[in-house]
Design a protein that fits this description.
Strand content: 35-45%
Order of helices and strands: EEEEEEEEEEEEEEEEEEEEEEEEEH
Structural class: mainly beta
Largest sheet: 7 strands, antiparallel
Number of domains: 2
Strand order of the largest sheet: 1-22-19-24-17-16-15
Oligomer: single chain
Number of strands: 25
Helix content: under 10%
CATH architecture of the largest domain: Sandwich
Distance between the termini: 21 Å
Radius of gyration: 18 Å
């Protein structure tokens, strides 16, 4: 575990035992308070074919990003089909639930909560369902469609999309999707807030102050604020990540590469 006096990255493997089992649903907590996160937690949820969570609320915000399968996400009866990497932000105290729209294949989603201690409260209200493609003015939820989200290249060969943050109606947290071509990495950098990165496609090397970690299959690295780090694609295929910051907007301070390799303290 990281501490303020001795900040240290924490790597959590996604292939371990689920941390919470519900009927047809398994939750794997990959970045939570016990790992040293400040202000958020993140993980993966897997739904069996046809499985659903009951309608519930939280006392904190929730962000869901579809990874694989057919996600049907329902907010106060408004039913959205989330395609791969579409992202839904639900504010606190808003009734919602998720279902696997397929009776044949599993569903996997990435979740983020604006708390270090996730919990839910079942909602007894019943809402008539109606299909929606986008929220209407006045609806509390915010939906970012991956297909139309702007793409930017922080370096050649790395394509990023911001999926949630202050500009998307989500205060205090931000995150997005990044894809790296073979041989590509970001420059060595630091943040003024904690970051959690889940590798959702391919293989990555996480380099932090001279330490190297191999990540794949939704393995997640938590990097505390102020630690120099970078992610590299040293494989022969593409690599992609979902990143989460404990801040409103992406912010990076570039530092000497030696701070990442360990050549500089």
């Amino acid at each position: 575990m990281s501490s303020p006096s001795d900040p240290h990255e924490v790597v959590t493997r996604a292939g371990g035992e689920p941390t919470l089992r519900l009927p047809g649903v398994e939750l794997c907590k990959l970045a939570v308070g016990r790992c040293g996160t400040d202000g958020f937690s993140a993980g993966i949820a897997t739904f069996a074919p046809g499985a659903a969570l009951p309608c519930h609320t939280h006392t904190f915000s929730e962000i869901i990003t579809a990874l694989e399968g057919e996600c049907r996400f329902i907010v106060e009866g408004r039913a959205y089909r989330l395609r791969p990497f579409d992202t839904m932000h639900v504010p606190r105290d808003v009734p919602h639930h998720g279902t696997n729209g397929s009776d044949a294949a599993p569903l996997t989603v990435h979740w983020v909560y604006s708390t270090t201690t996730p919990a839910l409260t079942r909602c007894e209200l019943v809402f008539p369902h109606r299909d929606c493609d986008a929220p209407s003015p006045g609806d509390p939820e915010r939906l970012t469609r991956f297909a139309v989200s702007p793409v930017y290249e922080p370096v050649t060969g790395a394509r990023f999309r911001d999926l949630f943050g202050r500009r998307q109606g989500c205060p205090h947290l931000c995150g997005g999707y990044g894809e790296f071509d073979p041989g590509v990495s970001l420059p060595c950098h630091m943040h003024p807030f904690d970051e959690a990165i889940a590798i959702i496609k391919g293989k990555a090397v996480c380099e932090v102050a001279g330490r190297r970690h191999a990540l794949s299959g939704c393995d997640t690295a938590l990097v505390p604020q102020g630690l120099p780090h970078r992610f590299l694609n040293e494989s022969s295929g593409p690599m992609a990540m979902i990143w989460v910051y404990a801040g409103d907007e992406p912010e990076r301070a570039l530092v000497d590469p030696g701070c990442c390799t360990g050549a500089l303290s």
